[in-house]
Amino acid sequence: MHRDDAPTAPAPLTDIDLPLGDRRDGKVRVSYALSGERTGQRLFVTTDRLSAFDRIIAGVPYKGQVLNELSAWWFAQTSDIVANHVVEIPDPNVTIARAATPLPVEVIVRGHITGVTDTALWTAYDRGDRTIYGHRLPEGLRKNQALPVPIITPTTKGHAGAHDVPITCDDVVAGGLVDADIWQQVQDAALAVFDRGVQRGRDAGLILADTKYEFGLDAAGELMLIDEVHTPDSSRWWVAENYDRRLAAGDEPESLDKEVVRRALAAADFRGDGEVPSLGDDVWVATTARYVDAYERLIGAPFAYADYPAAPRLRDAVAHLE
């Protein structure tokens, strides 16, 4: 979606160096431990890095702001379902949060059968599997079709370039990854948050096809929803208006997420190994537009583009925490 007030694409925020301790780097976020009155809290900077197939692919301007602000909105919208880690949002790209011990599984809830990655539901179904992640799926499903009911398909977390590994819900407990009572809380919360996302998406003219959640425990052992919620990075958002027509024609849904990037990489025979192919600047401009479009549809308000270059703004916003 073109916006007349959208600024010319600046250089993306791909890294930041702040004078804070205990720096930790994720695919998209950089975090630091806070001290003094904020001991027990961490500062998260959401960069513009885009990951796919468990690799950093590119920097996409304003993507980090979309993720940070949209997640903050969703955390507030779902706080009646499950506690979350958010304390404060001092900058469009920054979240101050309660420190958490992340659970060692990613919780993917799927309402549709789709995807192109090795862990995608459609990938396994298309090669003939019918019991996937412990769920028995019916014959005759088509790519991008709705499942009879949403299902949870966990994976282990790949670190340092390793790929995520599909497991079943039973494996989570049997393998000692998460205690049974906590895992039950996780599943109940994940399905309820997903349903909230489906409802809000419907109101916004969007379909929440699937999404990834991360959970953690605070110092007292309380379960919290952490990381991000229902963003174009963690979710597949499809435009509802033309979904049925595209499905009937065998076309891919119109998506407001990074699935278009995944498909372009897969078409170039890239699935996470080897050199990342060049996709061209037009891909990243279009990706920014899709992310902003998803934000505006879901929140129901215009996106306020933050100032770039981002590093000086970020340093000013957190200077009082040094």
Task: Describe this structure as you would to a colleague.
The protein is α+β, with helices and mostly antiparallel strands. The chain is 30% helix and 25% strand. The protein contains 8 helices and 15 strands. The strands form 4 sheets. Strands 8, 9, 12, 13, 14 and 15 form a 6-stranded antiparallel beta sheet that branches. Strands 1-2-3-7-6 form a 5-stranded antiparallel beta sheet. Strands 4-5 form a two-stranded antiparallel sheet. Helix 1 runs parallel beside helix 7. The radius of gyration is 19 Å and the shape is globular. 39% of the residues are buried. The model has no long low-confidence stretch (mean pLDDT 93).
Strand content of the residues, in percent?
A: 25-35%
Mean pLDDT level: 93
Radius of gyration: 19 Å
- In terms of quaternary structure, the protein is single chain
Structural class: alpha+beta
Low-confidence stretches: none
Helix content: 25-40%
Number of β-strand runs = 15
Summarize this, please?
With 322 residues, the protein is α+β, with helices and mostly antiparallel strands. It has helices spanning 63-77, 121-126, 169-174, 180-203, 243-249, 259-267, 281-299, 310-318; strands at residues 21-25, 29-33, 41-46, 49-52, 55-59, 86-91, 94-98, 101-102, 105-112, 131-132, 135-136, 146-156, 206-217, 223-226, 235-239.
